[in-house]
Amino acid sequence: MTSVPDVQVRPIELGELDRVNLRCYPERDALGALFALQGTIGFAAWEGDACVGLLHTYRLVLPGVDNSHWPAWNRGWWVKDVLARALDVKGPVLCHACFHVGRTLESAASDEPDPRYFGHGIGTALCRASVEWARERDYTAVLGTGVPDGFIQLARWCGALPWTTYGKQDFETVAFEAPEGELPAWARGECPPEVQQEVMAMCDARRPAGDFRTRLMVRRLKG
Predict the structure, then answer these.
(1) 2-178+213-220 is classed CATH 3.40.630.30
(2) For residue range 138-182, what is the model confidence (pLDDT) as tens digits?
(3) Which of 74, 103, 119, 217 is in Cβ range 3.0-4.6 Å of 171 for a Cys bridge?
């Protein structure tokens, strides 16, 4: 169990689903299969009885990649081709799908997270809890998508941690979203206005195209 001020982080249990905002998960009838496969559907941060942060996780067994339990929207750029090409890991791995701090049951109606929970290290605590849980269950590695440093709105939109935050927890970069020198699709306009404003600000600051690429980050737990 990992703690941040007034918040407890732990794996989500089957009996807690009615207390968790399940917006990004598959349909409710698919969640039972996820519990059977991996023992949980992710990690939650609790303030008393209120869920105030989430990390969705999925199990893969490499080198084969079966993501049939994942929602279609989350079968991202790294799940198949990049894993086969860039990652020299075999066995069970725990994949971070998305982080959502402040996504409470009360916020579900507006789909806007509660900003009171930003900036307290809840995302980092969720990440650490997932690594501890995976290590205790003999996983080979933990994988996640690290967004460019300084893109706060992008991180909230994608539900991801900055790659620098992953780096501080001993994750390493093994692949990039776009080829060197190219901007990823989201930075070329396929993003909400608040993220586009960040892109424009970074362009005005003459940050190179490579700084805009998200990264596949890996924390190796064995060998």
Answers:
(1) yes
(2) 999 999 999 998 889 888 888 899 999 999 999 999 888 888 888
(3) 217
